[in-house]
Amino acid sequence: MALCSGHTRESRLLLLLLLLLLLLLQPCACWICASSCPKTGAAAAAAYAAAAAAAANSLPYGPCTGSAAGPAIAAATAAAKVRQPTLQQQQQQQQQQGAAGLCMRFYKARAIRALSIPEIEREVLQARQSLGHLRLLQRAGLAKQHQLVHARRLLRQLLTIRAEREGSTGRQQLRQQQQQLQQQQQQAFLREATQLQQQLRQQMTPEMQQQLQQLQEQLQQQLQEQQEWEQQQQLMKQQLKGTRRLPSRKAKADAAAAAAKMAAAATAAAATAAAAADAAAAEH
Description:
By secondary structure, this protein is mostly helical. The chain has 3 domains: 2-84; 88-172; 206-283. It is 84% helix and 0% strand. The chain contains 9 helices and no strands. Helix 1 packs parallel to helix 3 and helix 8 runs antiparallel to helix 9. The longest helix has 59 residues, at 145-203. It is elongated. It comes from Eimeria necatrix. Residues 171-239 form a coiled coil. Residues 1-30 form the signal peptide. Keywords: Coiled coil, Signal.
């Protein structure tokens, strides 16, 4: 009797352990759902059979020969081997791996900035769809918080870079429009100047043409004198660099005379041009 009571206590402890295993291994709502879940149903059936055998051995009038620990441990081991991840868990693992890979791919701003604007728009649409899908899964208890954090971070980064790209394209378009407007204005100014020059040449008298020719000669002469003066200045600078001495009074006087001559020529040319303009206005 003492041996049977010892076996009974041991069997009861094993029975409690097996009941705890049943609670951990049972994913369905009741035992009737075991037919719809073949993998979990097999595990539950094996654990249930082991519990029944342990309960039969634990009865006071039942068989007390042998230990009930061996069959119970074997049944629990078989149930643990039969138990495998369900389809939902596999999908969840795939989603986690996909989200992690997506974040690792697009966290770098250079990778996103290398895309074109239509590609960025497509990525924004996909990110919004995935974020909505993850929110639904989280409400159902099938998604975790870190997946939503990754999806929101990716969407925020995509929207920021899209705004930057749109702003840069807007500035480029504005710059191109300004350049086109400047080119159009320059072309219009050249056309007007060409037309005015043709009209003046048609309306000019021989005297005005002669005055214009004289003015052109004077301007050409002034240009030559200016070039000579610049050459003299360069020579003087070279001499100063070589000798490190101040220029002589003669060089200063020559430079002043050249400057005065150029000023007088410019004044004469301006007076001639004003006289020609007055004559043209009087004729009109």
